[in-house]
Task: structure prediction
Amino acid sequence: MCQKCNVKRGPWYCTHIIDEIPPEKLEEGDLIEIKRNIYNHWAVYVGCNEVVHLTVDNPQTAVGFSLMVSHVDGVNTGKIKIEPLTYVCSRTLFRVNNKAPSPEAEANKRTNAETVKYALEMTETKKDTNYQLLKGNCEHFAKECRFGSEYAESLQVT
Result:
């Protein structure tokens, strides 16, 4: 249990105890789901406490209800960034969630090394990209890195 926030270990972790998480619980290439107030944010763990994630370019609309309202229908400027997991989590909980969107996606998923390579390549080739809440969001990006674009596009927003 984290002494700072009283969160029990696994399946959700707090960033206070990131150094205590067993290596087999957090591997390079894992998809990381991060709790937020209204939605969950997604990223790809690339090692050394760093993740690659898609976020909106304007930090003023990157949190809470304003994100939900301003990005539902429109195409917005997004950024694919590599940042520390502890920063991206920002005192919230996170977990590893490598669940495939379909059996076909599971059968065709990339290896952890391929997932990391793809995510890091995206920070260079698609650094500036579109962000769409319903069909081009952080979960779509993370799942594309792991399972390929044909499987990420079929995700249903819940």
